[in-house]
């Protein structure tokens, strides 16, 4: 099947074309087209995965154009890492599409929604399959565009916190800041070695043919791209705003796949990071700090969809930390895989709650467990996986990360990982208890809720099963996942006492978080966060998101960006006009009348032109050496 | 001499003369619209003639004009630009009181000037080409006779343009004095290695003159005022035609006549490129008039394009052609929307574009796509143009890497003002909710230009394959 791997990427694009060209006016047909094509993608992905497990790899490539020595290719790189990603992306896309039939039922933009989802799946799979930097950058921008389109999907609605199109625009601009770094990083590499192909660059980096300093700088620049896309500090601010999009979009793009693209990028280009090891430190500490920052904000958000959004940022921070501390891809990619399933599950489950209760605010929720058994149960499974309770999948992957941090000697990051684990289990069970346990809040009594339709609950059940079992491929006793992803390395061998102790400690920590959440939220309903009364200062600091957004939108944007523009305006007015008026005064004094034009100053323009020529003449006479003759 | 190689110029010149005579013979009251149709047919013939001789190589008038891939490619750009300008002007001119016959034949003489400029391989011929082009443009810019901004723009352009060409002529005279020839190839031979200050000064004067045409900072000051005041189809023509002509002849001049002085002029041009792109982008940030915004954007793009000259290799030269080709479509598309919008509302203020997506989704979409291509978002043609330029510079190496990084940062800055227009169209509520109609002709032009913006996706290799086979670039000294 490996030679047909390009079908994985092509199928969703075909779906996109069919939907916009043929079935646009028939919503259900559009959904069927999208689902069928994704199902084919999934089938091919699975058979490719089987083939790769059997030892096959391939690099299919189509020469697109040739610019001097640079070959521009469109390629499909089939190796263990991409094979895993193909399956993850197409599985979750398929489940989200099925779920969306129910969730988006009756929406006037139903076909448009499915066409965008298909376009996104195409872009994401194209990104995963890239065998060169040009292709990954192109699809990198395309997934960003799809994200923008889907965040702003309900463009005519007021939104929860800000209008959806504005949230989309914010996401687009903020991630672009990282992309500039990414592009410069690519160009820097291209200046050192005349190719854009991954394997050729990695081979040169591993063979030590490239300057270490250059590789370190390039790696850090590539990482800035990942920081933007994966919402790491300091570019994390766009992801919570992205929650203005429909919830299936949040599950697919802003939890499971696109935001993980940054992690995938770092993992994919690990050879460059490894050749400039200082860059790994940057990755590790940015990741670790982001994990802590986002988890702390997640503790107090009363908009439960945003809690899960901050949780995503925090978990992506874990993945980055894993890549950074280990200098290997397995721990990070493993957490990416397990996280994709349980986080998609959590989002779809909270979507089911929103669908039924028409709110995502803490004060409106509570006591839903009785009426929404499937949603409640599957959300519990996702929460246990996220909190890291064995044998749920999140436990194995998170534990591997913390273990890697301790093993690398970065004990501080290891302890940070444990602290974040405690916060994680607390905030997610806060959501769980406050949503499903206890009583319905008094003002909601008239509103009867009922379980979502099967198109929504069946994907939840499938994801719940996956969220339990996926982790079993990477236990410390038999780490098939690691052996598959990097077969050359030595994995585990035996399980040491330290590993077992760490597993025990992190389980206890997670249980403690759950217990604390139960003690506070499990027994009664709160309209406002209890922390707000107990410790208003800390609460304000956390609920204002460490004041980072206030700083960006209140200081940087008005005084930095707008200030720069104002400075230009002032320069134009005060300096240029002043000069012109001054000259006009002087020239007017000697009897030449200067006519002021309505816009612009003709004489001044000519003067500048002439001044440049004179300066050049003087410069050339003085500095090019008169001795050379004429 | 193979007259067939001259057929595009002959067709355009004949067409211009016939229209000129027609315009004089027809009584004042007769509608001139048919002249546009006539001109379009003639231009299509000229385009076919150019395509027919594509790939051939020769010299005309004893070496005054060169027929090679460089000149032929640019001729195609110019003719396409002229065709689009006629399509754009059709509805626009209906709003203009008074005669408009001169618009048609002046556009054609300007085209002829550009074609000669791009082909000339000798200083006097360059001068003739540039002056033919410029003298046609001055009245075109001022053809809204009742409009104060238009006449002012024309006068300003005329005075500064004359000043620039005088400076240029002075430089040409110095070069002739030093080398005893006006032929570009012979200048290179006569130059030797012993260039003195006077030679550099002459070269700098030429550069200043061309810098004016290309809109390089600090010779750019006419650009915003003239672009804003001129009739919009003429602005579009200036932005793509006149500028491309400047780059065509500048490329030939620097590559043919001054390879020996490369070490020196690459530094000058590097400084100019950084100044040009940065100034253009920062000044564009605070524009509220869409034509001024596009004017500053045009300045910034001249800065990027200059990188291709500084690279001084076959890739750089081909990149310039590809870049300008993509720029042609994106820019004409943007101006087409500006014209359609002004035809319907009479406004050129960006603030008035609010909510355009509800009033006319097609226009909003096309403008968004063209602006994103100008900003260099993949996979649109503008991105590949920039990539091509960057790769040419990386091939040269050295401090050009710094230049490339500055350009990459600049293109990120540019995104802010392009996206601001898109934001206005897509996010802000419209002040006037009525549907905004655009004519079928403008819609057709938009479809053509948007196809060009998407061109690189589907037709990249054949196009750059043709560029790389360029004869000019295979000269031994480039290797």
The ordered string of helix (H) and strand (E) elements of chain A is HHEEHHHHHHHHHHHHHHHHHHHHHHH
Number of strands of chain B: 2
The spatial strand order of the largest sheet of chain B comes to: 1-2
Main sheet overview of chain B: 2 strands, antiparallel
Total count of strands of chain A:
2
SSE class of chain A? mainly alpha
Q: Give the overall shape of chain B, derived from the CA principal axes.
A: globular
Number of domains of chain B: 2
Biggest sheet features of chain A: 2 strands, antiparallel
**Number of helical stretches of at least 4 residues of chain A:** 25
- Output the helix-strand order of chain B: HHEEHHHHHHHHHHHHHHHHH
Largest interface: A-B, 62 and 68 residues
Alpha-beta classification of chain B: mainly alpha
Query: Globular, elongated, flat, extended or rod-shaped: what is the shape of chain A?
Result: globular
Mean pLDDT value of chain B: 87
Return residue spans of chain B where pLDDT drops below 50 for at least 5 consecutive residues.
473-479
- The whole-number mean of residue pLDDT values of chain A reads 84
The end-to-end distance of chain B, rounded to whole angstroms, is 31 Å
Radius of gyration of chain B: 21 Å
- Could you tell me the strand content of chain B as a percent range? under 5%
3D structure, described in words:
The complex is a heterodimer of chains A (630) and B (479). Chain A is 70% helix and 3% strand. Chain A is mainly alpha-helical and 630 residues long. Chain A has a two-stranded antiparallel sheet with strand order 1-2. In chain A, α1 runs antiparallel to α2 and α5 (133-151) runs antiparallel to α6. Chain A is globular, with a radius of gyration of 28 Å. The longest helix of chain B is centred in the middle third of the chain and has 32 residues, at 148-179. A two-stranded antiparallel sheet of chain B has the order 1-2. Chain B is globular. Chain B has two domains: 1-257; 260-479, no CATH class. The model of chain B is unreliable at 473-479 (pLDDT under 50). In chain B, a hairpin with a 4-residue loop joins β1 and β2. The two termini of chain B are 31 Å apart. Chain B has helices at residues 7-25, 33-52, 69-92, 101-119, 123-141, 148-179, 184-191, 197-214, 222-229, 232-257, 262-284, 290-311, 314-345, 356-359, 361-375, 381-396, 400-427, 440-453, 455-468, and strands at 58-60, 65-67. With 479 residues, chain B is mainly α. The chains are: A mainly alpha (630), B mainly alpha (479). At the A-B interface, β1, α5, α6, α24 and α25 of A face α6, α8, α9, α11 and α13 of B.
